[in-house]
Amino acid sequence: MKIAAVPAPPCDPGVSAPAKFEALSTAGRLARPGLRGLLALQAVRAVLRLGFAATAAMAVGRLVMDEAVDPWLIAAVFALLAAACFAGFAADSMQASAENNVSTRLRTLAGERLSEMPARQLQSLSIGNLAVSMQRHPESIAALQVGHRAATVMMAAGPLLSAMVLCFVSWQAALLVICLTPVMILFFALIGNAIRRRADAQERAFGRLAGQFADRVRTLPTILANHAMAGEEAKLARRLEAYADNTMSVLRIAFANAGIIDFFASLSIAVLAVFLGLGHLKLATIPGFSNLELWQSLFILMIAPEYFAPFRRFSEQYHAKAEGQAAAAALDRLLDAEPVAAKALPVLDRLRLTLPAHGLVAIVGPSGSGKSTLLRRLAGLEPGAMPTPETHSPATEEIAWVSTDAYVPEGSPAEAISWNAGAVDRSRLDDVAGAIGLLDDTLLPGGLDARLDKGGANLSGGQRLRIAVARALLCGRAVLADEPTAKLDRDTAEAVRRMLLEISTTRLVVVATHDRDLAAAADIVVDLVRGNTIEAAA
C-alpha cells in the first residue's frame, strides 16, 4: 500500500473561514418559540391578577360599608385568583422548559462545533474551561435569552397595563406611581455596570478554578508520589474562596437592587395610602384622592403593587443578564479561537516513503520531531503535505485509530470492542479481550459486561487504549496507533505488542512510538531524528 499526497495549503484563498459561533444570537433564535409562549402566559397572568385585585377591592369595600355583595362578585374573586395562580404555574413551567430546550440545543451545537475543530486545536483547549463552557455556560445564556428577555418585555408592558387600569379610578394616582419609574430605571443603569463587572470577575474565577482542578486530577499520581497533596489542597481552597467571594459579590448587588425596588414600591404605596386617608377623613382636598368610595381607594392600593411587580421580577433576573453575557463571551472565545498553527516540520514535507499493503511500520524519533503529526496527516486529521504522492493512503480509506483518547461509546466493553466492527461472536470477543488483558483487569469489574459511562469517562487511559487495540484486531482495517504501549505495565505492553504484530501479518499497522521493543519488531522504521535527517530501515 502506498500513501497519497493530500495538499492543504493553509492560506488557500478559495477556502473561507468558518462563521462565528455567536452564542447570544444563536440562543436568541432557539428561544423565540418558547419566549412567545412564555410572554403570552405572563400577559394572561398579569390581566388575571389585575382582575382579581379589582374584584377583591369591590367585594371588600362593599362588605366594610355594609352593602350587599352580589354572589357573582365573590365567585369572580375566587375564580380569578385560581386562574391567576394556574397561569403563574404554567408560565414558570414554560420558562423552565424553554430554558432547558435552549441550553440543550445550544450545547449540542457547541459540541458539533468542537467536533469540526482540527485535532491540534481541540487538544490545545483547556479541559477545565471546556468543561465549564459545555456544562455551565449554556444554562446562563438560556436564562438571559428566555427569563431575562421575558422580564424585560413585561417590565414595559405590565406597568403600562396597571397604569391604564388605575386611570379608570384616578389618573392622578396613576401619574404618581409613573413619576417614580425613571428613578428606578436610573438605579438599574447604575447597578447594571457594577454587576456586569462582578459577573465577569466571577466567570474568570470559576474558569481558573475549573482549569486548576482538571489539571490536578490529571497529575494526581505525580502529586501523590511527591507528597504534595496538602499544598495542592490549599491552592484549590484559595481558588474556591476567590470564586465564592465573587459569587457573593454578584448576589449582594442583586439583593441591593431588589431592595431598592422594594423601597420605592413601598414608598409609593405609602404615599398613596396617606393621600387616600387624608381624603377619606376630609382633612385635605387632593384632586384624584378625595371624595372616592372605599372600594375605589382599596382598588388603587391593590393595583399599585401590580404596577411595581414587573420591576421586582426584572431585578430578580438582572444578574442573569450579566452572567449570560459573560458566559456567551467565554463560549465564543472558546469556539471561535484561532486555529493553532502547526509547528514547521520540513522533515515531513521532504519525507519520501512507500508503505506496504501489510506489515508493521514504526515512526520513531525524539519528542517534537513530528511522529504524532505524521500519524494525524496519514489519518486525514490534520492538513499538510503527505509523503510520496501515489494512489492510496490510510487517509483515503477507513482506518482504526489507537490511542489513549480513542472513542469509547457508552455501554459495555463488549459493545465498545465490537463498535463499528459488525456482528462479532461472543467467544471471539472473549478471546480478543483475554489476549489484551481486559478480562483480568481488577479495575474493570464485570469484564466485558461492565458498565461504561458516556465517552468511557470511567476508564483509564490504558483501558481505553486496550479496547482500541482489540477493536482494531476485529475491524479488518489499516491501523494507526499513537504511542500504543506508553504508560502501560510490562505485561500489558507486551500483550499490546503481540496483538499489533498479529494484525500486521494481514494489514498495515503504522505506530508512532518511543518503545524500542516495538520498533525493533517493525518491518520498516522511519526515524525522524534531529537535524532534519531521515533514516529508513527495512
Automatic annotation (TrEMBL):
It comes from the Bacteria. Residues 37-278 form the ABC transmembrane type-1 domain. Pfam families: ABC_membrane, ABC_tran. It is a multi-pass membrane protein. One of its GO terms (molecular function) is ATP binding. It is found in: Cell membrane. Keywords: ATP-binding, Membrane, Nucleotide-binding, Transmembrane, Transmembrane helix. Residues 332-538 form the ABC transporter domain. Its main location: membrane. InterPro entries: AAA+_ATPase, ABC1_TM_dom, ABC1_TM_sf, ABC_transporter-like_ATP-bd, P-loop_NTPase, Type_1_exporter. The chain crosses the membrane at residues 46-65, 71-91, 150-169, 175-195, 253-274. This is ATP-binding cassette domain-containing protein. It comes from Mesorhizobium vachelliae.
